[in-house]
Every structure is written in structure tokens, then in C-alpha cells.
Amino acid sequence: MTFLVRKRRSPPAVIIVALIDVLVVLLIFLMVTTTFRQQPALKLVLPQSSSAQKEGAEEHPPLVVNIDADGNFRLGQENLPVTLDQLRGRLLGQVAKEPDLKLAIRADRKAPWFRIVNVMDLAKDAKIKTMSAFTMSKDAAKP
Question: Which of 10, 30, 75, 94 lies 20 to 30 Å from 108 when distance is taken between CA atoms?
Fold first, then answer.
């Protein structure tokens, strides 16, 4: 009677170094091919103006109040939703911190006009001296 001698199989080995190399290459590929753009969270259709200027980096950027087509207010770069009373308090607080505060109004083309006037009145009550409005240049509107 012959007995078969079974050879012991070695367990399969996973080469971690090779897997890490592949993952690093994939990560680098994804980082290089991805485009990073800042997109505003609030979609506004700005009115057109022939004297529109491009947004640029300023030393003291203005405090931005966004007004959407429904007349809702959003404040600052974070687009925090605020009511008219909250906006009044925030403007007064910001002016107390920074007396030379600049205010920029970014209103949708279909925003109710009285909401824009409300913000202008609040700015006047808070003694904000410099106000501006965001517009879109006529050249940018053409496809």
C-alpha cells in the first residue's frame, strides 16, 4: 500500500507594499485630474450692467448680503439664512467691530425691490458708509 505524501501548502501572502504603491498612484492621479472650483451655494441671476467690475481680492472684502428671487436674506460668505431683525443685529455688531465696514448687496434679478431697499435702510441705520451692488457684465451674459 502506497501512501501519498501531501505537501503542505503555504498560505497565500498579500504584499502590502505593492498595494500601498498602487493606492498612492491612484490618489495622485485623482488629485491631478480633479478640478477645484468655488461654486456659490446660492444660484443668483444678477442684473446686467455696462459698468460691472470683476470680483477681486481686496484688503478688506465687503460683507455680502444675498437676496434670492423669493426675497430671502443670506449673510456673508457662508450664506447663513437670516431674517430682517437678525440682519439688523448682525450689521450693527459688524460696524461696532469694524467702523469702515463695506456692504455689498447681491440680489437676484427677480428679487423683490422692497427687500433691496430694506437692506439699504438697515445699512443707513447702522451708519455703513460704503455700499455696492453685484452685477453681471453684459459681455459675460453672451454665450
Answer: 94
